[in-house]
């Protein structure tokens, strides 16, 4: 951390022994160790806070990126949905008009069907001409001599 070698630590220890003396040196070393431990904990806490802030900033940028992507996707979906809706309405309008026309035709035919029994009831039986039940006279088919007999034997063909 401070880039201090073994020889430099040895020099610091000798100077501390001369300055504090052998009786006070253990207490001073213990206090210095205590303060050094507090300093290390403080530095590690600050480092952890900085790391958390960096992670929070990274997460915030990530969240912003995801939100902007979501907004773009939503705009794209909305645009596609409106285009689909417009195309669908262009296709449905003629079909709906045709359906309305067919519905009107059906209603008119239903009105005619409802009126049909009244027309039938108004027509009397005496208005209908009577056809006799006797069969018509049998008509004799005239034989045609010019027609070739297909079922005759080959020698029986007539020449005319």
From TrEMBL:
InterPro entries: TatA/B/E (IPR003369), TatB (IPR018448). It comes from the Bacteria. It is a single-pass membrane protein. GO terms for biological process: protein transport by the Tat complex. Keywords: Cell inner membrane, Cell membrane, Membrane, Protein transport, Translocation, Transmembrane, Transmembrane helix, Transport. Part of the twin-arginine translocation (Tat) system that transports large folded proteins containing a characteristic twin-arginine motif in their signal peptide across membranes. Together with TatC, TatB is part of a receptor directly interacting with Tat signal peptides. TatB may form an oligomeric binding site that transiently accommodates folded Tat precursor proteins before their translocation. This is Sec-independent protein translocase protein TatB. It comes from Candidatus Dactylopiibacterium carminicum. The gene is tatB.
